Amino acid sequence: MKSTLFLLALIIGGAFSGFAQTTDTTSDPGYTASPAKTPVSPPERAARQLNTLQKNLNLNQDQVIKLRMVLLRLNIALDSLRTNPSGDKKSDNQARRAITQDADGKIYAVLTIDQQLAYAKWKQEQQLRRQLNRQANKAPATDTTIRHP
């Protein structure tokens, strides 16, 4: 009788100890932790934008110098707006639009006619890309698997 109770207690104890242990998901080869997004500083962002414009628009050295200043001012102003919001989203958005439109006007003034057309085309492509990303993020995940009865 005692050995049966002891055996029963041992089986129950073993069964519950298995539930108490959790699996370590960090050692799972399929697990990838996404790195935290670190904010990019305005000078770094301006340098990235300038590199992109150089690749797409074939800028000369004088244009690069002028655009570097325009992009740096743009990104500093946007960063200031981002870090010190007024609390009113509508006024913040209006200020953001005004800043970017002012910078666009200065960018267009530096570019040649052909570069202006290429810049406008590139901006439209970027806008379309952002819209597609928003739609993809907004759409609920759908189950596309086909199930057969």
Structure description:
It is built from five helices and no strands. It has helices spanning 2-20, 42-57, 61-83, 89-110, 113-138. Helix 2 (42-57) packs antiparallel against helix 3 (61-83) and helix 3 runs antiparallel to helix 4. It is elongated and about 95 Å long.
**Low-pLDDT stretches:** none
Question: Number of helical segments?
Answer: 5
- Structural class call reads mainly alpha
Helix and strand pattern: HHHHH
Biggest β-sheet strands, sense, barrel: none
Number of strands: 0
The helix fraction, in percent, is over 70%
Amount of beta strand: under 5%
- Roughly how many Å is the radius of gyration? 28 Å
N-to-C CA distance: 51 Å
Shape: elongated
Q: Please tell me the overall pLDDT.
A: 83
Strands, helices and their partners?
Layout: H1 2-20, H2 42-57, H3 61-83, H4 89-110, H5 113-138
